[in-house]
Amino acid sequence: MTFEPFRTLTSRTLVLPEENIDTDQIIPARFLTTTDKNGLGEAAFHDWRYGPDGVLDEGHILNSTDTGSHQVLVAGDNFGCGSSREHAPWALLAYGLRAVISTSIADIFRSNSLKNGLLPVVVSPEVHKDLLEQPGREVTIDLDAEELRFGNHVVPFSTEPFARRCLLEGNDPLGVLLNAMPEIEAFEEGRAA
Amino acid sequence: MTGTLFEKVWDRNLVRPEQSDSPAILHIGLHLVHEVTSPQAFQVLKERGLKVRRPDLTLATLDHSVPTLRAGADGRLPYVTAQAEKQVETLRANAREAGIELLDLGDERRGIVHLVGPELGRTQPGLTIVCGDSHTSTHGAFGALAFGIGTTEVGHVLATQCLFQSKPKTMRVFFDGPVTPGVTAKDMALAVIAKLGMEGGTGYVLEYQGEAVRALSMEGRMTLCNLSIEAGARAGMVAPDETTFDYLRGRPGVPDDFDAAVADWHALRSDDDATFDAEIVIDAGAITPMVTFGVSPDEAGGIGGSVPAPANDSQAAGLRYMGVTAGQNLSSMKVDRVFVGSCTNGRIEDLRAAAAILRGRKVADGVTALIVPGSEGVKRQAEAEGLHEVFLAAGAEWREPGCSMCIAMNGDKGAPGEVVVSTSNRNFRGRQGEGVRTVLASPATAAASAVAGFVADPRDYVGAAA
Ligand code: SF4
């Protein structure tokens, strides 16, 4: 199995300036009883997009933005903190996002995102401020060159080399791990001895 | 070679060190599985024709979606939705097919995933332990390297018993001196998070050291390590000592030659000259019972203090959500509901602490109190000690084991706008029900707050009721 490679993405930004957007905001726990990965787009930011009465808040930016042309989320500091639920990147991808930009992105969320083709991009506070102030601007994320480009800016970012290679080539890390089986077995035998 | 506790455990479980084009491969000693983050992983294995490689190193339990209410007159458990029940059945089917031991409903060993590993003696010093759950850091209390993973990685471990891991950095968290009476592990943990901030630990494994840590029981150490993730850390660890060995001795899952194991485990401590990538020192004597006032766990303060002025718009919005204003005393927040339970504070010692305050007292009018043991074992022990009678006499509810209101996905939740004093780990918006305002605190503080009807200092309630 391979997944869709991620090389270069040019799209507009959707800005959510709130800090510490946790995974309970990204997908509330009551949607976690699913046994499937699909169909979570409706659950993405559900309680931000719908009132307590279940009525869609049409004025909310998450409801009024065309997701086809706005695939890059620019979010406040420390995005994705909280639980390890991989349902969070699944929901964001199903909602239509392909990349998240912030000044810091929580550990497990970051790792989960990379495994699903949602690219986390960490930028400096200055660049971040620029992006927060101009929602909807067009940006290009070039994973091969590890560059974020917008206007006259060329901003380098870094991605774990292995995850980057898997994304660029559409390689599945499980396949690579399975190839290491002789080493894994030798390790286990050595320990049993 | 000298090293830290983390490095020693890492090295013991390293199949292949990091290479220029791939992260290290780490062998996993114990893989804990629950119903919420596993179905999609089993599905991937099926699609690829792969088998669960080491069912013997895998242990499954049911905790997140299960009701804490007893079965109705028709004998059926009151699942919140049909989908929740299907999730439970899916894990049953997957475990059966793969030959994985499942602690099913009705099994006297069942409980929250982070309680059952230690109770069965499966959680041991020097092991690598993972689970599709961020509070896996709990098991670090035994000197294990334990961290949460996502569902894709659950699949990797099921299929290979290994994980790609980039090596984290190490941080020493040193508690200087002893804590004062009435201060618990939960208060110590909230003090660490308040100091580090929600992302201060990102990329690190924390090692807790100092007299106040040594003085903690295993229950307390588990509470401390459990909350490491709330500072963004990948894991938290405490070096094993006699307290650890005494806890484990005689439990079913420990090595046959226990004394030989103990001799080996003695080596699992940071050497005196080991270097850490970062270090913080906390004055243990200055810690008082802690409560949160905002919508992230680092927005916490000593109970005698007041709500600080917000530093930015996000914090201001959080305070508005909580219905508090800067300058307000932390102990003036009115309480609607109290929850004692979860993998943070659902162990026997936690229930004893709550019972000590509730004994001979009543939950205030208008307050609902829910006491949920973390496991069947905890429930049995609490009932043997008569704690359930204390809770019931005080007007609290005594439920069946599970995650319950910690994540509020089984139907146990608060109503919009309610203030809930909770012994769990996250005060995020809506975590305990849409619009619910959560105040995190220790079991003693939660119990005192239930009696007072507002956030209360447990030190005012020590000793028997008047
Ligand atoms: S009690 Fe809460 S934090 Fe612990 S495993 Fe259950 S849901 Fe997760």
UniProtKB/TrEMBL annotation, chain A:
Enzymatic class: lyase
PANTHER family (alphabetical): 3-ISOPROPYLMALATE DEHYDRATASE SMALL SUBUNIT, 3-ISOPROPYLMALATE DEHYDRATASE SMALL SUBUNIT 2-RELATED-RELATED
Source taxonomy: Bacteria, Pseudomonadati, Pseudomonadota, Alphaproteobacteria, Parvularculales
Protein name stated in the entry: 3-isopropylmalate dehydratase
Domain Aconitase A/isopropylmalate dehydratase small subunit swivel: 8-124
Gene3D superfamilies: Aconitase, domain 4
Single annotated GO MF: 3-isopropylmalate dehydratase activity
InterPro entries linked: 3-IsopropMal_deHydase_ssu (IPR004431), Aconitase/3IPM_dehydase_swvl (IPR015928), AconitaseA/IPMdHydase_ssu_swvl (IPR000573), IPMI_Swivel (IPR033940), LeuD (IPR050075)
GO cellular component, one term: 3-isopropylmalate dehydratase complex
GO BP annotations listed: L-leucine biosynthetic process
EC number: 4.2.1.33
Task of the protein: Catalyzes the isomerization between 2-isopropylmalate and 3-isopropylmalate, via the formation of 2-isopropylmaleate.
A Pfam family matched in the record: Aconitase_C
Reaction(s) catalysed (UniProt annotation): (2R,3S)-3-isopropylmalate = (2S)-2-isopropylmalate
Highest taxon of the lineage: Bacteria
Protein family per UniProt: Belongs to the LeuD family. LeuD type 1 subfamily.
Keyword set, alphabetical order: Amino-acid biosynthesis, Branched-chain amino acid biosynthesis, Leucine biosynthesis, Lyase
Pathway(s) it belongs to: Amino-acid biosynthesis; L-leucine biosynthesis; L-leucine from 3-methyl-2-oxobutanoate: step 2/4
SUPFAM superfamilies: LeuD/IlvD-like (SSF52016)
Quaternary data: Heterodimer of LeuC and LeuD.
Coiled coil: none
Keyword Hydrolase among UniProt keywords: no
Naturally occurring in which organism (per UniProt): Parvularcula dongshanensis
UniProtKB/TrEMBL annotation, chain B:
Cofactor comment: Binds 1 [4Fe-4S] cluster per subunit.
Keyword Amino-acid biosynthesis: yes
Entry keyword Iron-sulfur: yes
Binding residue positions for [4Fe-4S] cluster: 343, 403, 406
Name of the protein this chain belongs to: 3-isopropylmalate dehydratase large subunit
UniProt cross-references to CDD domains, sorted A to Z: IPMI
Pathway membership: Amino-acid biosynthesis; L-leucine biosynthesis; L-leucine from 3-methyl-2-oxobutanoate: step 2/4
Family: Belongs to the aconitase/IPM isomerase family. LeuC type 1 subfamily.
Superkingdom per UniProt: Bacteria
Gene name linked to the record: leuC
EC number: 4.2.1.33
Catalytic activity: (2R,3S)-3-isopropylmalate = (2S)-2-isopropylmalate
Single GO term (MF): 4 iron, 4 sulfur cluster binding
HAMAP family: LeuC_type1
Cofactor: [4Fe-4S] cluster
Assembly with partners or alone: Heterodimer of LeuC and LeuD.
Record InterPro entries: 3-IsopropMal_deHydase_lsu, Acnase/IPM_dHydase_lsu_aba_1/3, Acoase/IPM_deHydtase_lsu_aba, Aconitase_4Fe-4S_BS, Aconitase_4Fe-4S_dom, IPM_dehydratase_rel_enz, IPMI_cat
Domain Aconitase/3-isopropylmalate dehydratase large subunit alpha/beta/alpha span(s) in chain numbering: 7-453
GO BP term (any one): L-leucine biosynthetic process
Keyword annotations: 4Fe-4S, Amino-acid biosynthesis, Branched-chain amino acid biosynthesis, Iron, Iron-sulfur, Leucine biosynthesis, Lyase, Metal-binding
Cited function: Catalyzes the isomerization between 2-isopropylmalate and 3-isopropylmalate, via the formation of 2-isopropylmaleate.
